[in-house]
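Lab meeting minutes (informal)
Scribe: AK
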Amino acid sequence: MKKGLFISIEGGEGTGKTTMVELLTKRFRTEGIEVVNTREPGGIKTAEAIRNNIFEFDLDEKTDLLLYLAARREHLLHKIYPALESGKMVISDRFYLSTLAYQGYASNIDIEVVKMLNSFVCDKWLPDLNILIDLEPEIGLGRKGDDVNRFDLKGLNFHKKVYQGYKEMAKDPTYNIKIVDGRLSINELENQMYNIIQNFM
């Protein structure tokens, strides 16, 4: 690769994003590709500290948005950007589409404001490819078990809005979203996502 490749794995709660990031990272590394895997919010010490505050406290929706964006800026500058500049593949568990879905579509903050602030924070460093794991929230939330955070507890109606937000964005080709069926087995899901990335490369 002449430059790095930036991939974001997107979807609602319980869709298997974290598992897929780990499996895809291992698979591409076995092929000799340098891969940096990461997550949002988080990925570096400063952003993880912001993440802890986001999930510990019951915050206003606008405060949530601003904290997510602050974490994203630090994450970009100190982990994602350097990796891409050195030609590495970056696979992130969530990125800016999650902010549009959760803080825009589901939390009723003006979507154009969310887009504008995202653009301000990200500059040109947006994912080359977004892969959306399509899974109804009724199924995804049922997979969570006891590993829940305050967003999981917002109720089914909130998560349906997140889901519909993702589906709406998937209609817009400017987001470059490829959809995979979250009801597939882990192996089938990994293979589909691997093939999507390979074809994109």
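Next up, CB showed the second protein from the same session:
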Amino acid sequence: MSNPKPYRRGAFLLLLACLCMPLLRATEHDTLRTRRLIPVLGADFRPAYTFPTDRFFRGDNQAGEPIRTNLSGHLKLGFQFAPGTRLGDLYPYTVQGIGVAYNTFFNRKELGNPVAVYVFQTSRIASLSRRLSLDYEWNFGASFGWKKYDYIHNFYNYVVGSKTNAYINLGFFLNWQVDAQTSVKAGIGLTHFSNGNTSYPNKGVNTIGGNIGITRYFGRQEEAEGQQAHAAGRHVFKPYVSYDLVLYGATRKKGVFPENGSPVLVPGSFGIIGLNFTPMYNFSRYFRAGLSLDAQYDESANIGQHIANNTYTPDANSIRFHRPPFIEQFAMGLSVRAEVVMPIFSINLGIGRNILCKGPDTNAFYQILALKTHLTDRLFLHVGYQLSRFKDPNNLMLGLGYRFGKSH
């Protein structure tokens, strides 16, 4: 077991760099080939309500006041594939890029004012009129500058255990196209901050709130809906089956509950390695679904059932374990997967159940949210997050995937 704290910030920065590389590659490639990328600049203001998931948010803090409000300002730089390019014809409303956000919870001393850096993608769900549409946007990245829990100087904040945390946001909004180059939007969004159990405490910070923004497109021309449909119709799609193989790893912290004792946070970190094999039927160029065979080895699984201390109540310094048998730390399950497919990125959702397992930690349902970033037509970066029993944070899933069969 090793302590990942000195490397956590570097790991998140490396992850962001890997997520951004395909954006730079696509920009360079299409600029040289067609010079018909459309630069996009956006600004958002997001007032939000902070869920009181812990007594710290309900007023048990140094300030003695509830923490209910989160405000964030966002600046985003992206691009849209222009009409006449293959991706521009297939995805005429999709924008992807890089964003930065400044957050405040009005409690800088105990929570900090974290800055988030992320990749984003937005596209249309449905047209409501010629100029009004229902759109969505997701953000995925890292947030820096949190004030973490400290048992001497910040002991009330038993929520945030690391200075760097993942940042995930999903929003839905009405988008009004003022003219060919300007749009304004208003809607709602959900945000989650977490470190994926790489450090404790990790209760997560969750918000829900509004999203008001303006977007400027540079060089985009007005185009009729009929022209867009005609352009997309030139690219005929035939359903097919593809096969994704993903290998991932991560580290995590672990807390155990000794008999007749207080909970103990086990020192150090535990390794995780896993594999997913997922045949999926591609129903359209935007959506595919299938079943996944999931295998995972978790060095921390079920150690709470093998505590070696039997003469006194252990603490973090004295607790010892017998190594559990392999079958208690290895699990294999089946999950149903659905995936939204867009240029550069795909969002994968899964709900599954371990069928080969032993012990309370692995004998459970699990849920997966993953972002696939396409490095080539077949190779992709896989960044996922796994929950257990629909509520308990389990582990990150950081790895690489390869697509067999037809790739697009």
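CB comment: The radius of gyration is 23 Å.
No objections, moving on.
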